[in-house]
Amino acid sequence: MASTDSLTDSLTDSLTDSLTDSLTNDLCRRLGIRYPIFGLAHSIEVAAAISNAGGLGVYAAARDGPNELARKLRDLRALCPGVPVGVDLLLPTSLPGVSTPEDIAAAIPEGHRRFVDSLFARFNVPEATRGNFFSQYVRSQALFEEQVTAVAQSDMDVFAAGVGTPADTLARVRRAGKTTMALVGAVKHAQKAIAAGVDVLVAQGYDAGGHTGNVGTFTLVPQIIAAAGGRPVLAAGGVGEGSQIAAALAMGAQGAWLGTVWLGSTEHGLPAALTDRLLSAGSEDTVITRAHSGKPCRVVRSAFSDAWEAPGAPAPLGMPYQQALTGRLLAAVEEHEVAPLMYEAAGQSVAWVREVEPVAHIVERLVRETRQSLENLRSYLPL
Ligand SMILES: Cc1cc2nc3c(=O)[nH]c(=O)nc-3n(C[C@H](O)[C@H](O)[C@H](O)COP(=O)(O)O)c2cc1C
After folding, report:
1. What's phi and psi for 72, nearest 5 deg?
2. CATH classification of 4-98+138-274+355-377 is 3.30.420.270, yes or no?
3. How far does residue 259's CA lie from ligand 1's centre (Å)?
4. Which of 171, 275, 351, 371 sees the fewest Cβ atoms within 10 Å?
């Protein structure tokens, strides 16, 4: 078997040779990528590896402060020189204009604090010795403005808006030469994104890991394509194998956008206890909870999500209060690897996270399966 490096090198070499390939479609040509496979990850190593393997990697930067973000985007570019790559931010428009961690802390009810303290005690979690994003920053319009500045000044090729599509932000990053994408879970969100001038829509269904609406991917994609006015649409949510990418292409999507499958990649390097949870989880082991961020979010089930569902648990707070409340606990859980409480956002596609393997192998499998499914289709239906 080829080593990861040689596999990645040969994919990168062939990428620069030519973009002619049975899976290279209009959007691929426009972006300069070989395969209609788009991958989002909270790791620059994973995003770079997806781009180096011929797809488009998108780095999810919502948890980076502005200075760190600027540095990470430089590092990301250096990891995948000469190939297109992107960055994603969460920009909910309903959050406070300016806020400090102290303002937010003062608004958290005492009962909620006691509940989180009870989880520290019940699972013997030692305090964290270092802060995390939520102890330093509050999601606010002021923070978003600084993050967008870092993105606009970067040399990323693509900008994706995960939650919210503010028109001024899209216009700014478009002026900076980036292709813009927006994740949408309903036709009305697609209409807003189109009005804001977005280039590409990502139709993200209920099956997806992360923040999600309540319409399933198979139902959502054709409706977003119908509303897109000819703009390219990508299918997201629950995609773990190539037959689903072929189905997305058959529905008229220009590609598929995947998040969960990369969690099992070597490059992600998640802690062992979390990797074990993901490897052993099936589609039925994910739950939608507001306990993660205050907004409905699909995660792999754990003692953390169970605790917030248990009788007597307080209702999760809204965004940004919930993460300000749980940040101290989750930083400690991550630092000390407290297995029962470890979780990650994950979609029903977690069923395809079955081994730890390099990103290049995942992309290669998806491409092979997609081609096979398209060939199968031709043999069933002589077209
Ligand atoms: C671990 C994880 C983190 C995510 N974080 C973000 C994010 O920060 N921004 C965003 O736009 N989407 C985020 N998503 C959603 C993905 O962009 C994507 O739409 C989703 O993963 C697709 O469904 P799948 O998980 O079944 O592949 C995340 C998904 C996962 C699994």
Report:
1. -65, -35
2. no
3. 5
4. 171
CA-proximal residue: ligand 1, atom 1 (nearest): 345
The CA distance from 238 to 364, in Å, is: 18
Please report the atom of ligand 1 found closest to the CA of residue 237: 23
When the pLDDT of each residue in the chain is averaged and rounded to a whole number, the result is 92
**What band does 1 get if pLDDT is binned at 50, 70 and 90?**
very low
pLDDT band at 230 (very low <50, low <70, confident <90, very high): very high
Atom of ligand 1 nearest to the CA of 58: 17
The model's pLDDT over 322-339, given as tens digits with 9 standing for 90+, comes to: 988 999 999 999 999 999
- Ligand 1: centre distance to CA 106 (Å): 31
Residue 367 CA to ligand 1 centre (angstroms): 20
* Residues with a CB atom less than 6 Å from ligand 1: 40, 42, 60, 62, 88, 90, 160, 162, 183, 204, 207-210, 236-239, 257-260, 344-347, 349
Tens digits of residue pLDDT in 32-75: 999 999 999 999 999 999 999 999 999 999 989 888 999 999 99
pLDDT digit string (tens) for 159-178?
Answer: 999 988 889 999 999 999 99
Pocket test for ligand 1, best of 212, 215, 260, 277 (most atoms within 8 A of CB): 260
Q: Measured in angstroms, how far is the CA atom of residue 60 from the centroid of ligand 1?
A: 8
